[in-house]
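S.,

As promised, the pyridoxal-5'-phosphate run. Input:
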Amino acid sequence: MKPCETPIFDFLQAYAESGISRLHMPGHKGRPIPGGEAFPFALDITEIRGADVLREAEGIIGRSEEIAAELFGTRATCYSAGGSTLSILGMLRTAKRFGGKLLAVRNCHIAFLNGCTLLDWQPEWLCPPYDRETGLASVVTAEEIGTRMDRDPEIRTVYLTSPDYYGAEADIRAIAAEVHRRGGLLLVDNAHGAHLKFLPEDRHPMTLGADLCCDSAHKALPVLTGGGYLHSRLDLPKSILKDDMALFGSTSPSYLILASLDLCNRWLAEQAREAFAAMESRTRRTEAVLQRKGVQLHPWKTDPAKITIDCRKSGWEEEEMAKLLRRNRIEPEFCGGGKIVLMFSPFSDEEDFARLEDAFASFVPREPLPYPEAEVSPRTVMTLREAQFAPFEEISVSEAAGRIAAESRITCPPAVPVVAAGEWIGENEKKLLQNSGNFSLKVVK
Ligand SMILES: Cc1ncc(COP(=O)(O)O)c(C=O)c1O
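Predicted complex:
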């Protein structure tokens, strides 16, 4: 195999070694703060001659993005130094260019609601039924999406999150087929799924038919926090995607983040497939060990980079189980909503798995604890934008029934808006807000 180029990293390394006087930003001039010698100040530069410009990307950044596009099999891949948040804003802007209505599955991240607010694009909501067994909304089906599109032929863009925070994947191939049959565009928030491309079975949303998709490279791959991708298979010049991201992004993207995306390309090209295959079989082995001890796992989870423990079904409160993990020197990714999410990557080592197995060595399951009712049924009376910009007052949630939310409140994670700005608050929403720890709320005056 030809060694994979790393043009951004090579440029930074050569520049750091050149001894050139840095009469440019940033203010540290490539020299460490005393005591901060371990920090890579020397590689942190701005868009100087030869370093390209992220929003135009015709030099080293452009070349590195081409390599990423080849690795992910996309028509175009743009780097984000602002995580999936920036990629979501950019992809909504691009999709809005095609006109029509937007249908969104409710388990969306706050970045989606913010994008809709900024772009004044009100989503129609699709809320899959709540499942009492798991305490979660069900994973959306292709049939539900097809039915909604048939009911409203003006829907042109469909937006969904997959995998979700707990590691459940939607059937993107079937959904893409339904959306495309009706002439629509499919946008996927794949913030948690960059690695799906490199599993023994490639099930990245771009492979399965998404038109635009964001990945938080930093969540699943060896990339610095903030590194992400916007992938496209649309017949559009890449410059349009760049313009649409530039509308929201900083004009000073971090070269440390860009260089980590660049270095990651080499790892993806040379090692990722084997490494993810090994990780997949290792996480499955640990899951089997936990199950033998009576630990209940989330039944819909398919992402092998996650182990999702259903604490309530195992008869434990999640905080109590988190304490058990911390006593064994494990910090979970998330603990809440009756579940614990543990994230793995090929950079997890044998000790990480062994500690987890040891933590449950003398585990005693108990009678399952029930999940409360949490059906969300939004009633939109103002658009997100109207409500977010309306005069507001902050009141106690106990007095919020009968009012209109002036802000969105999302259970964080798994990122299901309990209320979005512009929605009517009834007794059910009031109870849901209180159950998810919200005690005051901005409402429209
Ligand atoms: C489903 C989902 N989408 C988008 C984001 C935003 O990603 P980032 O933090 O990379 O901006 C997150 C972050 O946790 C997320 O969970």
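The pocket of pyridoxal-5'-phosphate is lined by residues 83-85, 109, 111, 161, 165, 189, 191, 216, 228, 413, 415 (CB under 6 Å). The longest helix spans residues 272-292.

- D.
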